[in-house]
């Protein structure tokens, strides 16, 4: 019995120590563990946020700590948010402002339900333009108080949020000459990728033609065809990356998201690629006057291989003349959650 009680006491002490070392369980809408607010400031901030919650059910919660320890502010904020279930369960309408004094970092963590309104860009601009300048002067309360005012306004006044988003777009708008330089740079990548892809594809066409007319052994042709995949993929990469970047610059993220979420277009591209390749092979066979079609599984025409696939030769789709392959006690969370949306900043 004595051993059982002793084990129970030790287990309880261990549990308490472990709990103290973890993330805080919030009991008020503003928790000032870093002691950066006066009592009057705490009362003012809590009153404002409780009133906002009672009117809208949205929870804007403030937590200040001395340091993060070995965690990033993003991970710490996410753990605190989900551990305390900020926001309502069905709405996920919670926001956490996490302030770390010694680390000189701050984060606005946004619940799923409010991410369409307080986007990463909106949260980042609030941190950058409202909070950081005041934190540098150690006006911590003013920075957090003004940030909560902005969040409350954006969640209750759609027109103010629209105007703020327009300011963000104007701030991120690039001068025409910068876009011109970037366009030139992207075109160079596309041109280089197109050249590499053309060389690899022309080699593939000639390999298939050589197999069909019996000049190139099937077994050897398969290995040679597989080797052309690398320059083809390399060329497509040089073409694709600039095109994706251009889509982002032109504001076509929705198109890219649809392509990522539905890969059926890949199937049609593959079918189209195979069909086009067959047509080009047939065209080349006819244009070269190859009358006899035959297959040789193991024997190749050495003179044909030397002439057509030598490192110094070149060839095109229409000719076979040479080419090489390229190489508060009343406060509690409502069951909401966050997936990591928001923004962080440091000063």
What features would you describe in this structure?
By secondary structure, the chain is α/β, with parallel strands linked by helices. Helix content is 60%, strand content 8%. The chain has helices spanning 2-21, 39-56, 73-84, 120-136, 140-156, 158-172, 176-212, 218-227, 229-249, 253-261, 264-287, 302-308, and strands spanning 30-32, 59-65, 94-100, 105-110, 341-346. The longest helix has 37 residues, at 176-212. The two termini are 57 Å apart. Residues 1-21 and 311-328 have low confidence and may be disordered.
Portion in helices:
55-70%
What value does the Rg take, in angstroms?
32 Å
Give the overall form: elongated
Write down the overall mean pLDDT: 79
Question: How is this structure best summarized?
Answer:
The chain is an alpha/beta fold. The protein contains twelve helices and five strands.
Task: Walk me through the topology.
Blueprint: H1 2-21, E1 30-32, H2 39-56, E2 59-65, H3 73-84, E3 94-100, E4 105-110, H4 120-136, H5 140-156, H6 158-172, H7 176-212, H8 218-227, H9 229-249, H10 253-261, H11 264-287, H12 302-308, E5 341-346
Helix pairs in contact: 2-5, 4-5, 5-6, 7-8, 7-9, 7-11
Overview features:
347 residues; alpha/beta; five-stranded mixed sheet; 12 helices; disordered N terminus
